[in-house]
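Teaching assistant here, posting this on the class forum so everyone can see the example we discussed in section. The complex has three components, and the goal was to see what a joint structure prediction looks like when all of them are supplied at once.
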Amino acid sequence: MYDFKALYEANSVQEAIRLLDEHPDAVILAGGSDVLIDTRSGKLAGREMISIYGMDELRGVSIDDEDNIRIGSLTSFSAICRDPIINEHIKVLAEACSMVGSPQIRAIGTIGGNTCNGVTSADSASTLMAYDAVMETEGPQGTRRIPISEWYIKPHQVAMAHDELQTAILIPLKSCSGYTGCYMKYGMRNAMEITTTGCSVNVKLSEDRKTFEDVRVGFGVAAPVPIRAHTAEQAVRGKEVSEENIRLFADQTLEDVRPRDSWRASKDFRLHLCRTLAEDALREAVRRSGGVING
Amino acid sequence: MLVGKSVPRVDAHDKVTGMTRYTDDLCDKSAYIAKVKHADVCHAIVKSIDTTEAEKVPGVVKIVTCFDVPDIPFPTAGHPWSTEPAHQDVADRHLLTKHVRYYGDDVAAVIAEDEISAVQAVRKIKVEYEELPFVLDAQEAMKDGAPQLHEKYPHNILAHTDVRRGNLAEAIKEPGLIKVEGWYDTPTVQHCHIENATCFAYEEDGYIVVYTSTQIPHIVRRIVGQALGIPWGRVRIVKPYIGGGFGDKQDALYEPLCAFLTTQVGGHPVRLTCTREETFANCRVRHAIRSHIISWVRPNGDIVARKLECWSNQGAYASHGHGIAAKGMNAFPQLYPCDNVECDSWTVFTNIQVAGAMRAYGMPQATFANDCNIEDICRRLNLDPVQYRKDHLMPVGYKDAFSKNELYSDTFRQVLDKGMEYIGWKEKWAAYQKPQTGNIRRGIGTAVFWYNTAVWPIALETSSCRMVLNQDGSVNVQMGETEIGQGEDTAAAQMTADVIGLPLDMVHVLTQQDTDVSPFGTGVYASRGTYISGMAIANTGAAFKQKILEKAYEYTRMQPAVMDIRDGNIVRTTDGRVLMTMGELATAALYDRERSEHLSMEKTTQAKTNAYSFGCCFAEVEVNIALCKIKLLNIVNVHDAGKLINPELAKAQVEGGMSMGIGYALSEKMKYDPKTGKLLNGNLLDYKLSTFMDHPHLEAEFVVNPEPTSPFGTKSLGEPPVNPVAPAIRNAVLQATGVAFNELPMDPHLLYRRFSEEHLIR
Amino acid sequence: MAEKQYKLVTCTINGRKRSEMVDVRASLSDMLRNDYRLTSVKIGCEVGECGACTVLINGEAFNSCIYLAIWADGKEITTLEGLSGPNGELSDIQQAFIDNTAAQCGFCTPGFIMTATEILNSGKLYSDEELRKMLSGHLCRCTGYENIFKAVKKTMYSRLGMEYKEDDGPVSDIKVLNSLDFDNHRTS
């Protein structure tokens, strides 16, 4: 039994927005794999809940008229993992989503929940960061599109008002075209794991596979919110695909990351992981792109 | 013969169909829900408790605080009671406490109509504390001026014992000795049975009835009686199927409190189920033990003298107490015997949660320390670690003066040879000895152990068994040894079937212990189940069989001496003729209008023996230095547990123990906030129990040297598998990296720290 | 909550259509255990970490502890009780758990069998690594997962009409790692 003050079920986006407006204290319940746990622990006990779980219109992946991959906010990690559009255009997102928690958590957890809870350990977030995703929200003022770079304000706070609802995550096809990615999740065990540090790298190589035309990298748990490491990206963009540059890239990530000490891992260890994972993930992304190091 | 056959578990069908009923499944929906108010300070005196707001929560029935409970201190350890006061367990618990000794100690309890009301009320209870300084480390707690937990125990020392053999001071004067010294630290870990601790209680006919998930129903009955200050016979404990125990449930957990709470609401059923977080924070844990070993060896490896000091972190209350550290310490001079030994062990109270029994009772800690030190000797002297062990382990014929345990056969050589062969020791060890400089490095390691069977002569060993002939000729068997997942009921059924001469389906082991009905027995712990119940079954069964044959004489006119029971029939042994079936005999005897008799037999068997059990582990690892990760490539445990009653069940037990050992080696550790003493990772996400993806194939093998003291040739197996795993993995990592990990778990945090110290990572 | 809030939840449970007024605060495991007495649904953590409460919802495995009962409306729910045939015949995976000694204390068993059922119903052949990943949402302390793995793998092979071969030998390749080769392939 969960300690709810009351529970409302929204059957449409408009109804959800109206309910949010009427209940300024209410919490959105999507898949519940965070909110229900916080309710049980007491953090969200005794609150009003607005369940949007039944809103099938927010489920599914498609390509919209503006050439964006459109992922409905309630799409589960499992659904993303097996979706043909995702696997064709941005396979690394499926890779990242396949590392969330456990199979049952992936069945209930939603990508919208994963990005709206504003946590840095979200496995999907670093990849969405690295592909310049855009968050679509609906509210009384209508539709807004917020680049992911402006989405995260601080831990547990995103750029969305109380009466707004995230409805979709958009990834421009042009952001995927020609890029190949690799997500590395570091955990203390191989399943059922909260990410110690996560790193999502993608590369676009020149035709001869010898030059980094572009490199992008997103990190989770390398800062209070998910981040990009622009300094590192800049350092190797246009440069030769070489061991030296892969290491340079890895070293340069330290200019951008700012992990904290916690009992889950020390700051020094996380710094070491940022560099090590960046190096390994870039090398693997190059390999997946058919690139030749020092070729 | 059924003993020695891998028959399916007798409880398997119900377990795969969802028909098995555990404690919570049996609780009536009308039961009130009890929730405990846990202290959110680590060490304090409770000044006052304000329940005003909590009482207002709708659905609250009653709130009980530490000021409302009887002032009767009681012990909780699941030991057989001792009639000598000096040997009784320390009585230092109250149902609820005014003196908070660890973060989460129990100060009040709410009884409510439903769970949400109970939880809400607990959150609204206000407790005023006078906070005291606290100490979390055992050696710190022994220092002058350290915070004191219990008045009776100065310097927080619950107990100190020692072993002295030969003359160490003289022996180490020998010139040319090499001193190999190490400090070896094992962490606090938890059992993680998947069924949380749970019980419910109600009153009936002036009795308190408690259904509980326990390994030790008759002991819990005694403890509930003691805690409430009522006659023990007024308490009835019922133990249904349980979802794992591993020693945590070899303790009275919340049964005494739950029994008390039902008396506070007129005997209405009250259920007290721990959440997973409470199972972590408020039940028992394995003692963290720090061991300091110095070995003085000759250049050829001969061990001249050894010194062991160990400090065992007891936590806030005595529970099983010094038994754990003492068991490990007493094992130390036996495994690698040497003439000059000094051992000291201290068990020390600290302000962390209570340590109790956990699978292998002190031996995982001792085995880690001992076999790390032995490996360190091998490396220092450049000796083959397997050969060194073979040369220095207890020799055939070794006999322990205290337990009278004896090593009858060349077991150690046999288990080591078998393990070496499986894992391909020779080639791999040689290959990995070559210098490795890359990021990925491999190593192979081994470790050995011995373990006791049951608790004699430290404590009483007794088991009662009742056999009853049913109308159809089948036999019901009742004992105090509980089924906790290990397969006790199946083994008991196999043994009974053989002793009497029945097919398996004519033996019904009554799985549920009910202290009003079941014969007295102390439960399962110390890997005693099959060994001790086997004795009870052999004795009771033999007497019962004789009684049945004497009864058969009345109907067959054949002498018992020429009859036997075979496959459920009374058979004339001289020509093999079936004289009557057991069913015919039972019906005839029961419904006999002249001499009706219900055939049954009940006997108490006391054991005054113990038995050495042995084994080893070989592990092969691959270490990724930059990622600070250890990947286990291959692992094998080889055991000599005597004759295996059910080989497949035995194998399954070993695999489970190996898994627990892998967690102990690589990932499991309870973490406490040094600033508050609060447990930080008390849930299944943050406590890193191995998942399906964290193991390679687990290979379990056996050598069989039947144990002479057991009628079935069997000895301990339940706990032993956990013992050698962590040191074997540690020794493999040492070969791979050259880094000696003298601390567990070897998780990425520790690898990062140690690899940084050794400049293996930039 | 001033007044308890209920909702009529109509769903198919183990093949039978059922309706019950359910407290909106109830989890699916609350409803299955308390309202329908389907006690194979085990409670081990209540936060989706142990997998003991796993049931199938429209054929997919979910932790019923973190799934609201009201969400089950209109869904098809299967618990372990629903796997046996009308006369108590065991399904192949249940029999495999018996034959391979895959249950010990039995507390994690119902959840494991439900996830295994989803895996097997896919009709696909999975590698060992894939199988381990698909089963990784369940914790077990008794078995070391060894016999559970065997039970699922053998049943998968048998459903696909393939021969199962016991392969318990050690990984036997020996890499002599004395060069810098591995510096370039750190995560391999």
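For the discussion questions: Chain A has twelve helices and 14 strands. The mean pLDDT of chain A is 97. Think about how each of these relates to the inputs above.
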